[in-house]
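A brief tutorial aside. Many learners find it easier to grasp structure tokens once they have seen a single protein encoded end to end. The record that follows does exactly this for Probable purine permease. Read the sequence first, then the structure, and try to relate runs of similar tokens to stretches of the chain.
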Amino acid sequence: MVKMKSVRVIINCMFLAIGNCGGPLMMRLYFHNGGERIWFSSFLQTVGCPLILFPLLFSFLRRRRLVEQEKTSLFLMKPPLFIASVVAGLLMGFDNYLYSYGLAYIPVSTASLIISAQLGFTALFAFFMVRQKFTPFTINAIVLLTVGAVVLAINSDSDKLANETHKEYVVGFLMTVGAALLYAFILPLVELSYKKSRQGVTYTLVLEFQMVLCFAATCFCLVGMLVAGDFKVIAREARDFKLGESLYYVVVVFTAVIWQAFFVGAIGLIFCVSSLVSGIMVSALLPVTVVLAVICFQEKFQAGKGVALALSLWGSVSYFYGQFKSDEKIKARETQETQLSQLPLTDSVA
């Protein structure tokens, strides 16, 4: 059982790594080569959810073989958890819009550094929502990650993209900060939904939750696309795409698939471990995303961004160390309790 859990954690970490590093780069590729539709790029982040139907179908067929056919339900999710997944999905749809808006006007490396601040705020929300332990190391991480975001804001003039105004950069920066805060709230919200679901949470149920969440987020962004008139201009945007019309659709498809890997990994880690570990993985992959952005798009890497990266890494390491020390104490306490329970009982003689 422990081995199976470790395998699931590793698989979800791999999915999260692919999505966390590849998703922002694919979106920047879209905007860098002539893409301009914010709602459409938001839509792409969750529209790949039908891919989850394949493992769900496999799970259903497996359950049919193990139990009687009339007792096999197609979906395991009960109404309370379904409602929670819809609410989380609508919030995720709005979060995707904030992130897409930000990434349209700020470099990937800058956006990744801002998003790293979600670790501290995930810990803060998790403390109030799921009673996650709050330690001095967590406080230190929150302070460092917040200071890192402030340093980026101070150095905004030297970090703007070509042909971009200061106002566009500031709005994009604030939108990305909003995306980080909202995502930090969604992670413990999902964990709280699992705990309050009043049904056994299995990995199949997690995939169902992910499916409904992404579908709700996709519908939210679909409404935005209809209002903004994105469907009327997608064909023209594809023809004008700098890499060519065929590669436009390749970028669109790969963006949808890669982002779906991110969401499966993030939600899966919440089930296997906790919302904080999911947030930690996002922050731990920060240096990889920053380096890839600098290499792929020749983004500037000034002293201010270097300081922000150092503060973000310091904050993440601080949190990691705090969790390590906390786990050590818990294991020591459990070992002591086990040893005490194994001591022979002696009757006292009056």
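Self-check: Residues 303-341 form the longest helix (39 residues). If you spotted this yourself, you are ready for the next section.
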